[in-house]
Input
Amino acid sequence: MTVMTEQGAPPTAHRDHLAALIRRRRRELGLSLLQFQERAVDPETGVQVKYGWVNRLETGEQVIPPRLPQLRALAAAADVPLGVVQDAAGAEFFGIDSVWSESGEARAFIERAERLNADQREQILRLIDTIVPPPEN
Output
């Protein structure tokens, strides 16, 4: 489930989810900004995230939100799954908080549900309602 703030707008409080993730991973990996830049290359397109962008991100300066190639490059440099970087970027730049079940089953269901057509999704929802009825208001 993705939770957005009112009307999809970013929250007013400063959020640094991606910055904190990158700072933490650089520290854990023992990488300087220059070493991180050398690793921050999208394996699909060759797009590289530059030292200056990472430095501005980490120090809280304004940066242009990364696109998918930059997110893949950051994931490669930080040695984390792309989804982790996407979740952090969504939270920091767009106020989107991903909420997943502890078991991960909800995420797996959502990923598979994307391949279902509208009728199939409706059937699944009716099945779920017979097993676990929605709460009464």
